[in-house]
């Protein structure tokens, strides 16, 4: 195990430490986290820090530690996930690798101690107690409804996928070596205590996970102990390691992560091909041939001036038109995110009530769970493919597969294929303005939709109603 520091003290950069006192009596009161909206949920998550201060001072810049002496919040955090939950969860059919990893940091390296196949709770607890192994539980929001509620709201707030992992580490042990991640990280301490050390990034806002050796990372910039109810944030690329101190029976924390592959670079990789394709339809400069044998040359420096001028022309076109269409990133987000967590209101995901008529007033619902894209017709295999409008939504997504990847898709089963097919609707490009009217969030009369015929207006409203995307008044 890596050598530990003596005192738990902050070193180097200033870290924000805040305290918050309990304000209500009953543990796990609904007022602990405010689920009224995505904005209110995030504000309550990082409280007492204000979101404006967080994004101005900390986001992608530096760590934030919020230490709270709040029994109410500590009790709520513990309710999210605890060691005792594992016995019942194992009985539901968990598997090593897919659902659970067990590991330990040995001589600065991660040693995986997984067995084969299904997880047996007695064996898992034995490895935890005797081998001092850390239990890593993948994506607990699949099983724990409160985490589902939190992460679904955070996905609405960030417009990016939000995953989570639970780490349970016995006393005097460390699960992972010093490393950095490719995600923005929020850590909630649920049970026990965890001793953390953070280090200056070697790669700022890293795009991939990497282990770092002790002799390369230097001294910690921050060192502290998290207790139940405490929250820690640090940007992607922040090198970190954590252990459960001696004298603490075990530590449980949940890592909530977001913004993987969600940078300007990723957005450009998604959007620029469409910009080039559309511009080439109108500008002959992009349709002229490249020089003979260009693809066979080792050095293509002579062509960089031409490429530079084309890129400048594309930039001018983009600035003048204001149009940049991203479809794959949007589709990926909507296809893979959590569905709404509605509890007793789940009936709102089934069409019901009044059918929309020409005189009806309608209003968009679940706006954070639906996107509009313009892309080539996916159902037309002809050489010339018309552009169509697609409305994708996540209302029918499966919570059970959230953030679990596509490793099971090799089976070729109909169920796997269905999971990879986005839910939604397809309309002619002439419907785009009417859809924008509805997406404005205002109540709209069906007969006032920007379409040519009454039939088109009614059919559009009916299609959206069938997918539970509008309310009818």
TrEMBL record:
Q: Kindly give the InterPro entries that the UniProt entry links to this protein.
A: JmjC_dom (IPR003347), NO66-like (IPR039994), ROXA-like_wH (IPR046799)
Compartment annotation: Nucleus, Nucleolus
Reactions it catalyzes:
L-histidyl-[ribosomal protein uL15] + 2-oxoglutarate + O2 = (3S)-3-hydroxy-L-histidyl-[ribosomal protein uL15] + succinate + CO2; L-histidyl-[protein] + 2-oxoglutarate + O2 = (3S)-3-hydroxy-L-histidyl-[protein] + succinate + CO2
Q: Where is the JmjC domain?
A: 139-271
Q: Where is this region: Disordered?
A: 400-422
Question: What keywords is this UniProt entry annotated with?
Answer: Dioxygenase, Iron, Metal-binding, Nucleus, Oxidoreductase, Phosphoprotein, Ribosome biogenesis, Transcription, Transcription regulation
Cofactor: binding comment:
Binds 1 Fe(2+) ion per subunit.
Q: What class of enzyme is it?
A: oxidoreductase
E.C. number(s) listed in UniProt: 1.14.11.-
Q: Which GO terms describe its molecular function?
A: histone H3K36 demethylase activity; histone H3K4 demethylase activity; iron ion binding; peptidyl-histidine dioxygenase activity
Which CDD domains is this protein grouped with?
Answer: cupin_RmlC-like
What protein name is recorded for this chain? Bifunctional lysine-specific demethylase and histidyl-hydroxylase
- The protein's gene is named RIOX2
